[in-house]
């Protein structure tokens, strides 16, 4: 294993959000840095699958909310086309790295990751292209297994700190050719979800399907086949999926060559009988055909972080960028879009949202075709929005936020909306461009919740003004324009 010490970070502010955009310091064209991302506690792993000669992984850590580079890992065996790190997964002290037919397992020892195990399969089967871990046990997908890419999944049991043994091979009772069973996988102590996104390729309709397995004393047993609730053709149901606390999220992005399908995520709840029941479907607030919403996402408790890396073949009349990432939080009225993240360079090909992950209020977004203005080798964004706490027992994210006034520019009235995650003494004030206070719109103790305030500027002259929200230790400012 070879280790290099490299780093290049840009600390920036975008859309009122503090973030860090970072590249590999040895960036070259076509590295695809950010093709896969993973965060666990305060450790971050980023792959660069086309880094010469066979791919690499960059390890970072967060300390006092500052990003630091730790290690560059490359495989001991140099094989062209190895695609080292596609995908990868961080879990506690372990790093799981997919390659061309092998799964490599590294362990953090003295702050450096060192290889402890290699699980070999067939590159022709795409063995280890998807991998999922739960308490060190593994599900490893081989979506091109079989003569006609029917697919298979392998369950490996952890027997000690550094060894895993094959316990079961999972294949559904009936599966069509080219279904690619095992394309995406996830599991917990009781249930596993496995996608076959190309199911229907032969028989039609070509929509995809997800299999629900239940754990028994004799192993994993097929429990239910979950079909897409939508009748649209070619929707890639199961492009990504997650299971968390008896809740399943299933993405259906649509085919990138078919621009009529608006991406969505279906939420299912597992009932007391062990069957998945449709609970909700989630769309982006600015949805459009071909947005690829749900291409990648992470579900943790009542928080869902979603990548929508868009279809570059579709042009927007209203925006230069079609690449976004969204944070949804489940509330009393269902899943609500709370935050929206975007890239710095608004072009159609950066791949922003290709992969996403989050933990402890830190949100990372891969942008593997991004540019540093010279090279198109990829970049990764670390967003650290105004989040004051994460409730450990159910991962509910609480947010202080103030929205851009609407309309803006305005004449003479406009509305300002803001959210408080907890009660506290709250002020909302307006200032002129010289910093002089014009008016106090709010000055009182406010409980947690969302609020709107109307500002009437009929007695003010045209110009630029600022409004400032303060509650407890939180302060946020925004600009507005009065145009008479």
List keywords for this structure.
five-stranded antiparallel beta sheet, 0% helix, mainly beta, 484 residues
Structure report:
The chain is mainly β and 484 residues long. It is 0% helix and 54% strand. The chain is built from no helices and 39 strands. It has strands at 2-4, 9-14, 17-22, 37-40, 43-48, 56-63, 66-74, 88-91, 94-98, 102-109, 112-120, 131-134, 137-142, 152-160, 163-170, 185-187, 191-196, 209-216, 219-227, 237-244, 247-252, 264-270, 276-282, 293-300, 303-308, 324-331, 334-341, 355-359, 362-367, 379-383, 387-391, 396-399, 401-402, 413-420, 424-432, 437-446, 449-456, 463-471, 474-482. The strands form 10 sheets. The protein has a 5-stranded antiparallel sheet, with no helix packed on it. The protein has a 5-stranded antiparallel sheet with strand order 2-3-30-29-28, with no helix packed on it. A 4-stranded antiparallel sheet has the order 8-9-10-11, with no helix packed on it. The protein is globular, with a radius of gyration of 24 Å. The N and C termini lie far apart (66 Å).
